[in-house]
Design a protein that fits this description.
heterodimer, A: mainly alpha, 2 domains, about 0% strand, globular, B: about 110 residues, mainly alpha
Chain lengths: ~250, ~110
């Protein structure tokens, strides 16, 4: 905690943070890896050359956006429309950027540029669980570890999909590991009545709005849930109950 | 689609994605955000996670399905119980996947 640590001591601490971040991404990889393989196979079968297919994962690094881009490309959409769609699909990352920003704003651009580059759904979810635990001094190393772990797995799985292609049996049910992992991650965020209400509202809206295109079925329910939670907090503050403990 | 168009998409997609992710990190200091935005930020993780989980468990072929033949809902409910009691990620995943696998065999 203090700044008087020896150099060796703080090095082993940041190593622990980095490896902790990488380790905590592992359960999520179980669900993400098959998607990377499917993306690689799908991109090649849509007529995208292997090098360009890998470049989608290398440079864009955003699963849903990549899938939607490939389907638009195979439908012969114009490049402008594809880029615009990627923009809309990734708009939800504005929320992640705003949510993490208070924890990283003091860092140099040397940190902020690579960290934001790694700010996917999965990295955001794991990193924000870390920031909730406090002692933020070296937490950016944790964020880096978790982001790089996901990035490396996304590259490898894309590569396997490109090279092995149709050999991969589709749908062995591993994608179900994703909501299961998210369950363990949502529990610590549900600390009081407004957070529970925000989650329930977002979940309900995500069912009602499930058929919206462009991943808006995630962005809009999330924004509505945040609004409901915030509205409840403000109302109870005004009514004099400063703490929103569940009854 | 030719290679030049593909590269326009890859590089354009990269630029828009990173501008979004970088936005608040670089351009908007947290203490300059309005107070209600700062207070709203703590709802981002629970809301995002709930909006990710709910459709995966409750929808079957795109329609709401609250019954025992929705195997993901049954397996997910058991996993939720395990998650709540143990707070252990791997136990939660294994219990959910096992239940899902067993239900598919029945």
């Amino acid at each position: 905690m203090s700044s008087s640590n020896s150099r060796a001591g703080s090095f082993s601490k940041l190593r622990l943070e980095f490896l902790g971040g990488a380790r905590d991404q592992l359960p999520i990889l179980l669900g993400v890896f098959p998607f990377g393989v499917i993306f690689g196979a799908l991109a090649v079968s849509a007529g995208i050359p292997p090098f360009e297919a890998q470049s989608f994962s290398l440079f864009i690094f955003a699963g849903s956006a990549q899938f939607i881009a490939v389907s638009l490309i195979s439908g012969a959409a114009s490049p402008f429309l594809v880029i615009l769609t990627i923009l809309v699909v990734n708009l939800r990352h504005l929320l992640y950027s705003a949510s993490i920003a208070p924890h990283v704003f003091h860092l140099s651009n040397l940190w902020k540029i690579p960290l934001s580059w790694l700010l996917t759904d999965e990295a955001f979810i794991v990193a924000s669980a870390r920031y909730r635990k406090g002692s933020p001094e070296l937490a950016h190393w944790y964020f880096l570890g978790t982001g790089l772990m996901l990035w490396a797995a996304w590259q490898l799985s894309t590569f396997l999909g490109i090279t092995l292609g149709a050999l991969i049996p589709p749908g062995i049910g591993l994608d179900f590991a994703l909501p299961l992992t998210f369950m363990t991650l949502i529990l610590p965020t549900l600390t009081d009545r407004p957070t529970w209400t925000a989650a329930c509202a977002a979940g309900a809206f995500s069912i009602v709005l499930a058929n919206l295109p462009f991943k808006l079925g995630l962005l809009i329910p999330a924004v509505l849930g945040i609004g409901v939670g915030l509205g409840m907090e403000m109302r109870s503050t005004r009514a004099g109950h400063a703490n929103g403990d569940p009854a | 689609m030719n290679r030049i168009e593909l590269w326009i998409i890859i590089l354009g997609g990269m630029v828009v994605t990173y501008l979004i992710r970088l936005s608040f990190f670089l351009f908007i200091p947290p203490d300059r955000m309005p107070e209600w935005v700062q207070r709203g930020l703590r709802y981002v993780p629970p809301a995002v996670l709930a909006a990710l989980i709910a459709p995966d468990l409750l929808l079957l072929d795109g329609a709401l399905r609250l019954s025992f033949d929705n195997h993901r809902l049954v397996a997910g409910s058991i996993a939720a119980l395990v998650a709540w009691r143990t707070r252990n990620t791997w136990l939660t995943i294994v219990s959910g996947l096992l239940t899902f696998g067993l239900l598919s065999l029945l």
